Amino acid sequence: QIQRALRALSIPLERLHVMKGHMIEDMCKGLSRQTHAQAKVRMLPTYICSTPNGTEKGNFLVVELCQSQVRTLLVTLYGDGNLSPQMMYKIYDLPEGITQGEGEALFDFIAQCVTQFLAETTSPDTDSEQYLPLGFVFPFTCRQTQLNKAELLSWSKGFNCSGVVGKDVVELLQAAIDKQARPDKEGEASGGGGWFKSRKSSQSAPSQSRHVEVVALMNDTVGTMMTCSMEGRACEVAMVADKGSNCCFMAEAYLVETTDETSGRMCVNTEWGCFGDDGTLNDLFTPYDQAVDEESSNPGEKRFEKMVGTLYLGEIVRHMLIALTAEKAMFTGTDAAVLKEKGVFTMQHLLEIVNNEDSITEVKRILEALGLQPSERDCGRMQQICRAVVGRAATFHATGLAAILSYMCQTRDLESLMVNVGVEGELFAGYPRFEEILLSVSRLLAPECMATILASRDGSGRGAAMVTAVALRLTAQRRAVDEVLAPLRLSRDDLVKVQALMRDEMDRGLGKETNPSASVRMLPTYVTHTPDGTEKGDFLALDLGGTNFRVLVVRITEDGITMASEIYVIPVSIMQGSGEELFDHIIDCIIDFQTKQNLVAQMLPLGFTFSFPCQQVGLDKALLLTWTKGFSASGCVGQDVVQLLRDAAKRKRHLGMQVVALVNDTVGTMMACGYDDPKCEIGLIVGTGTNACYMEEMKNVGTVEGDQGRMCINMEWGAFGDNGCLDHLFTHFDQVVDETTINPGKQRFEKLISGMYLGEIVRQILVVMTEKELLFQGKPCPKLQTKDIFKTKFLSTIELDGDSAANNGIGVDSNGLALRQIRAILNELELDASFEDCVLMREVCQTVSLRAAQLCAAGLAAVVEKMRENRGVDQLSVTVGVDGTLYKLHPCFSNNLQTTLKDLAPNCNVTFMLSEDGSGKGAALVAAVADRAAN
Ligand code: ADP
Ligand code: MG
Questions:
Q1: Whose CA is nearest to atom 16 of ligand 1?
Q2: Per-residue pLDDT averaged across 161-166, rounded?
C-alpha cells in the first residue's frame, strides 16, 4: 500500500516530457490573440520590455501590498552598475478587516503608509528632488495594458475589497496618494481611515511638497526577476516557489499577440498556477490531491499550484496519512484522529522532516508533538512520504521551467540557450535539494538549455524599484532617440514637396535657357526608341563605371538573347593616370576578349555603357562632363569619349569593332527590360549611386533640335539638390557624410539614397547615439569611428526580420536568424551590444533606409506624373526597369519605394521589373535599335 502511494507521486520521465509539451502548448494558447481568452495559462503581458543595465540612477519608491502587510521601500541608485543600492524600508500591518472592506479604504491606507514612510525617511531640505517615481507591487491577477495601467481581474489570497475589480488599480492608488498630498484635504484624507495621527501643518509632511507618481505596476514574480538582474548579469526568467507558484520570462514581443508591441522583448507573467485546469494533469492527480482540492476554497481551480505550492504540500501529506491509516498501513492500533484537522501538518513540519534525512528521532518528535504515536516503521515511511511530496513539487517546477527554457530557445532560433533564472520562495529557500532537482530535471527535459539559478536575496521590492527605474530610463531614452531621429523622418508633406521640387528641376533641366542652372541635368541620350523585339545580330558591349569593368558579346536572335562576358581589372594607376593610358588599356582588354571568343575576324558594332555624366550630342558622340566614382584620368573631361575610344583603337590598329552608341547605365537598364516589356519606358538605378532615365517628348526637350517623337532623357538625378533646393532636408548626419566625401556639396540627392552612403549615415547616427549614451551604455566604440566600416549591406541584414517576422507565422525563424547575423556584424565591429542595442540599431537602419526609399519614390513620382501629363491620360500604366544591389537585396527598400510611389502618384500604375545585366544587354540593344531605326 505504501509503495503504491509513493509510486503515484513518482512521475516517469516520459510523462514529464508530455507535461512539458502541454505546458508549451498552453503558453502558446495564452499568447495567441485568438485563443487567449480561453487559455488556462494566461500569459499576461507586463509591459516590461527591458532589464536593468546598471545605468539607472535616482530615488525610487516602492510600495508592496502583501498578505497582511504593506511594505514600503526607498531605493537610491547611483548608476554605477547598481551593485549596492542604498535602501530604506518599513513595514506596516494591515488593519483588521481592511481586506474585506471598501477598496477606497485599502488604497487610502496604502497612500498613508507612503506618506508616513516619506515623512520618516526623508527630509525636504536634503532631498532636493520634487518628483518621486513609485513602483507598485500588486500580487493579484490583472489585465495590464500599459506599465502603469492594470485592471484587477479578481481578488485572491483572502482579499475581497469592494469596488476594485474591473478598475485600474494604478489610478486608484494615484488618486489616494494625490488626496494625501493636498493640504486642504489633509484632514479628510488622513482622518478618513484614522490609522495615522493626522498632521497639522503641511510643512511637516515632506511628501506634500513633492510629487509621487505611480510609474509602474507589477506582479511579485516580475519583481523577483528584476531583483536578480541587478548583479551585472541579465536575468530573463523568474520563478516564485512559495505558497503559490508562478513564473515569468522575457518573451519575444511579437509573440505576445495580446499587445501591439512587435519589437524587442516583453516580460510575460505566465500565471502557470492554473495549468491543468482543463484536465491535462488529471492522470497525475492522486486521490490525496483530489482531497486537498475538494477542501480548498476554489475546487477545480489552480490544479498545478495545488500540487506544488507550499500552502498545499503539508495538506497532501496529511491526506496520504489519513488514507494509509485507514488502510492500516500506518499508525496501526493507535489513535490518529488528529490528522482529520485541516492544516495540522504544516510546511514547517514537512521541511524539518525532509531536511533531517538521517534523523528518525526528529520525525518521531514531530509526530509525537502532533499527538500521534508513531512506530519506528511509521517514522521511516513518513520520511519517504514527505520526500516524495516535496520531490514531486520540485520536479513539476523543473518541468514548467524546462517548458519555458525550450520555448525561449526555440523562439529565439538558438541552438542552445544560456540563461539566468531568479528563484525565490519558501520551497526554494527551505528545501536545499530543490535547486539540485530543478537543475537536473530541467536539464533532462530541455538538454539544449543551460540555466543558472540565482537566488533572490531580498524579494520583489528591490526589483520593483528597478522596474520603475528602468521605465524612467526607457521613457527618457525614447524621448532622446526620437529627438535624434526626428529630422530623418519625413512627413507626407515633405515628400510631396520633394516631388514638386523635382518636377521644377526637370522642367528647368529640359529648357534650353534654364538648363545651365538646373541641378538635374536632363541629358539627352539620342535613344529615341525602346526595343520592339525584332532586333537581331551580334554586338560587342563595354561596361565602364559600374563595380566592374567588363567586355561582353551579345547575340540577339528571334529566340532571345545570349551573352558571354569577361571582367577586367582597371588598376588605380590607370584610373587616375592619363586618358590615353586608360583607353589604350580598354582596347587591350577588348582585343584579349575578342581573341578568346574567336571574334577577331569580324567587325562588330559596339555599344559602350559609360556610367559617368556626359553631354551627349549624338548617339555616338558624348562629351565627358566630370569623372566620378574614383576615376580621374587626365585629358578626358570635355572630350568626346567615343572619339577617345576610336583613337585608341586606331593607335592599337584594332579593326574588329565599330563604336555605334554610348549608353548610360540607366538607359541600358531601361532597354534591357524594354526588350521583354514594351511598357518599360523608365530606367532606375539604386546601387552604389542612384540615377534615372525616361522617355520624354521631343517637343519638351529644349536642348535638342526637333519636335517629333520621343527621346530618352538621362536625368542625372543624383545631383538633385546641389543648388540648395533640398537644404531643408539635410540633417547633421548628412552634412558630416557629405563633408567627408571626395565631392562635397555634389550629388546631394544621391547621398541620401544610395549604397555608397547609407551605411555611413547610419554610422554617424550610431556615433552620436553612443555619445549621448543611448547605445552601448555610452561605452566608446573605437572601431565605429572608422569611415565606411558600417557597410550598407549591414542594413539589409539588420532589417531582415522587422515586418516579415512580425506579420507572418513563419517569422519565428527569420527573427532569430537575423539576430544571429546581427551578432556576427557586431563582432566584426567589436561592439558590445545588448539585445536592446540591437533593437535600437535596427530602428536607426530602418529610419535611414525608409527615408532613402521615400525620397527615391518622390523623385519617381515626379517622373511618372510628368509622363502622364505629357501623354494627356487620366491613368498611366508604365514599367520601370530597375538595377542596383541596394534595390535588389535590401529587404524593405523596394516595398517602401513602391508603397510611397502609389501614395504620391495614385493615377499611375507602375510596375517594377528587375533588370538582368542591363549594362551589357542594354548597350547591345541600343546598338541594335539604332541599327533597326537606321535601316
Ligand atoms: P553599381 O551601382 O556600382 O553598379 P551595385 O548595383 O552592385 O553596383 O551596387 C553596389 C552597392 O550596393 C554598394 O555600394 C553596396 O553598398 C550596396 N550593397 C551591396 N550589398 C548590399 C546588400 N546586401 N544590401 C544593400 N546594399 C548592398
Ligand atoms: Mg551598376
A1: 755
A2: 94
**Whether residue 547 has its Cβ less than 6 Å from ligand 1:** yes
C-alpha span between 551 and 40 (Å, rounded): 68
Q: Which residue has the higher pLDDT, 628 or 625?
A: 625
Number of C-alpha atoms within 13 angstroms, CB side, residue 18?
11
Residue to mutate, 544, 750, 792, 797, ligand 1, most ligand atoms under 8 Å from C-beta: 792
Buried b / exposed e across 773-789, counting CB within 10 Å, b at 16+?
Answer: ebbbeeeebeebeeeee
With 70 as the cut, is the pLDDT of residue 486 above it?
yes
Residue nearest to ligand 1 atom 23, measured at CA: 793
Candidates 527, 863, 866; CA nearest to 684 is 863
pLDDT in tens, 66-85: 878 999 999 998 887 766 78
Confidence label for 862 from pLDDT (cuts 50, 70 and 90) = very high
Instruction: Establish whether residue 884 lines the binding site of ligand 1, counting it when its CB lies within 6 angstroms of any ligand atom.
Output: yes
Domains assigned to the chain: 1-23+279-458 (3.40.367.20), 536-663 (3.30.420.40), 726-847 (3.40.367.20)
Q: Which three cell numbers stand for residue 619?
A: 548617339
Find the Cα–Cα–Cα–Cα dihedral 11, 15, 16, 18, rounded to 10°: -160
Q: How far is the CA of 549 from the centre of ligand 2 (A)?
A: 10
Report d(CA 652, CA 181) in Å as an integer.
Answer: 95
Tell which atom from ligand 1 comes closest to the C-alpha of 759.
16
Any idea which residues carry the catalytic annotation? 550, 611, 665
Supply the pTM of this predicted model: 0.73
Least Cα distance to 774 among 465, 486, 471, 479 occurs for: 479
